[in-house]
Amino acid sequence: MSTQARLTDSTVLLQAAGGHTDAFRDLLHIFLSIFPDMLDRLDHFFAAGNFSRVVQQAHDVKGCLYLVGATRCAEKMESIEIAARHDRALCHSAEFEQLMDEMRSVIEEVEGDLMATRLSLKEMC
Q: Which domains are seen in the chain, by residue range?
């Protein structure tokens, strides 16, 4: 995937880790250990029409997206959060499903970033 086509910006998380590769890798692991379940819960709440839970889960998901530099996805998630809070009619299923697909791609990118840290460490040894 080209740099321009990426949904995430790994430098955001690396800066949050103070530039420390070990901390960066730990944060990638944490993201990958919690984010897929967060998406599953969000999808479940959306499908069930439980918009009060969609608001809460969307807020949490949005924070994780910002952490890995997935700004466009986070902004779209904020729109879902606001729509679920104020005007449920704005929560269109097609828009939501497209965003879910993008967020699954975010997971793939973060997995790739984690793999890249492993490869670069092997090259250093």
A: 10-111 (1.20.120)
